[in-house]
Specification:
This protein is of the alpha+beta class. Helices cover about 30% and strands about 35% of the residues. A 7-stranded mixed sheet has the order 1-2-3-4-5-7-6, with helices on both faces. Strand 3 and strand 4 form a beta hairpin. It is globular, with a radius of gyration of 16 Å.
Length: about 170
């Protein structure tokens, strides 16, 4: 896999992958148009939320062998305490590329890099019936918390220290 920072010019390729109703079984909503993706990517390439409270990393996943775009990985960075940075991870792999390990490789690469940058813990929201995403979260060391938000369960790996039950 090759990970590359999100650019507005990715919208055309991404629209082809994301324009698949099978993906939205788990994500909800409808497939975005190229124009909608361009607008979204315009906002996301700023690398932080409008209020500056959250950092954004958005990377596109591309197969090295043939250069085809297969999906995305994202991290929203936030300070859970003044001395602690955590990340909410998300991944989307085009339906035709699922089952080949791209989601696990992309998310693992992002998580490993984030750990080297001082990120202490990770969370992800996974639909309870989406076994593939649950497998990726588990491979990243996350566990289901039992907390549900908008039909998705919160998975978490709070890192080697300061688990919520310890505070």
């Amino acid at each position: 896999m090759q990970l590359e920072p999100l650019m507005i010019t990715h919208a055309q390729e991404a629209a082809e992958i994301l324009n698949d109703v099978r993906l939205h079984k788990w994500m909800g909503g409808a497939p975005p148009t190229r124009e909608e993706l361009e607008q979204r990517y315009q906002r996301q390439t700023v690398d932080h939320s409008p209020d500056g409270r959250y950092g954004w990393l958005n990377w596109m996943l591309r197969k090295r062998a043939d250069g085809r775009l297969v999906g995305t990985v994202q991290a929203t960075l936030y300070r859970s305490r003044p001395d602690r940075v955590e990340a909410e991870l998300a991944w989307v792999i085009g339906h035709d590329f699922q089952g080949d390990g791209y989601g696990k490789e992309g998310a693992s690469t992002m998580a490993l890099w984030l750990r080297t940058q001082g990120v202490s813990g990770f969370v992800a929201h996974v639909h309870p019936e989406h076994r593939a995403s649950a497998g990726i979260a588990r491979a990243l060391g996350m566990e289901p918390t039992g907390e549900v938000h908008d039909s998705e369960e919160l998975w978490a790996d709070f890192g080697p220290r300061d688990r919520p039950s310890d505070t």
